[in-house]
């Protein structure tokens, strides 16, 4: 048969011995992976390229590209309260659209095919995801000292869900996004949980990011953030918990028992000096752990290969065991486990029936030689500059390193203009 797209003579990480494979794509789905010849209306030459599932960025605030290099070398609460929140108060939809498109362009160029986001003006991020072709799991960031205080924001999240969940051939899905235990009162969280439950939606929340958050929560409620969310019933629906840096054995057991999925953000956690999440321990308990960049103002880029590499390295140093989080596990966390973490079942693997979210790495640079182990080369040696081709949902979004759906020159100009207006309105 003739596929819509055929990728010919490409290498895979499994078996990783240099065997040349052919991939056939029909519409948005992978229809064939094997060594038989395939024909396609569009043919991509895969020689000297490695095909891998696209990275899943399991936690970000994509429009925060607007604030990259704006406030560095600070701890989380100082950074948020004194630099970020005052500027975010002046955001508008236009800035979020262009900031989102800038981040999406950066993610596609570095091999990310899906991202889970929590922010303001999420209609605009949804439009940017729709326009660019990337896969997205979106939530409106929610804060509220009481149900009344946070009601309008909850309505916005509800509207976002009704308009965008399942949109664009299922490429965009929506969760509810209560920000954190220190910005949402328990009563407000109860209303958010009830609304999510009513609609069958999942929840995306920052949890146990810093030692201070845990200490304050213990002081105020007599429980850790994880135990408090369990008590509020949050974990009875699906939950994506971002960070989980300060989770003790009891917290981890709660996460495991309820099937809570974790987004580990190693670079942001290091830069904000929040700590190192006990990833090896959580994985041992059977917790699904995906990887995220967090926003570009605390990372400071959206390059998932850096997170994959860092997750492997940190786990080894933290546990004193070089076998902790081997390359294959880091690759899994960046791909199929990340997809599972953000609630997607049909992406993250190069298998028949999965969505055609595929990245081709060009292996002609010195870092790809010799080829003892292709997974090791990708995780420990490759560069994101090697990303050559990116497909999402069977559409080509990057070809020979060039974005096909985003005009970066226009995007950077628009971002500059938005920032000028934002800072002028502050004077
Ligand atoms: C209410 S929308 C999301 C909200 O989260 C802020 N944010 C960005 N990075 C972090 C982080 O690491 N921990 C907690 N909150 C973070 C972002 O600036 C928005 O205000
Ligand atoms: Zn975050």
UniProtKB/TrEMBL annotation:
The protein's Enzyme Commission number: 3.5.4.28, 3.5.4.31
Residue positions binding Zn(2+): 59, 61, 206, 294
Matching SUPFAM superfamilies: Composite domain of metallo-dependent hydrolases, Metallo-dependent hydrolases
Manner of cofactor binding, per the entry note: Binds 1 zinc ion per subunit.
Protein origin, superkingdom: Bacteria
Known cofactor(s): Zn(2+)
Keyword Cell inner membrane: no
Residue span, Amidohydrolase-related domain: 51-396
Repressor keyword on record: no
InterPro entries: Amidohydro-rel, Deaminase_MtaD/DadD, Metal-dep_hydrolase_composite, Metal_Hydrolase, MTA/SAH_deaminase
Catalytic activity: S-methyl-5'-thioadenosine + H2O + H(+) = S-methyl-5'-thioinosine + NH4(+); S-adenosyl-L-homocysteine + H2O + H(+) = S-inosyl-L-homocysteine + NH4(+)
Positions of substrate binding: 88, 140, 179, 209, 294
Record GO terms (molecular function): 5'-methylthioadenosine deaminase activity; metal ion binding; S-adenosylhomocysteine deaminase activity
Keywords: Hydrolase, Metal-binding, Zinc
Biological function: Catalyzes the deamination of 5-methylthioadenosine and S-adenosyl-L-homocysteine into 5-methylthioinosine and S-inosyl-L-homocysteine, respectively. Is also able to deaminate adenosine.
Similarity comment: family membership: Belongs to the metallo-dependent hydrolases superfamily. MTA/SAH deaminase family.
Name of the protein described by the UniProt record: 5-methylthioadenosine/S-adenosylhomocysteine deaminase
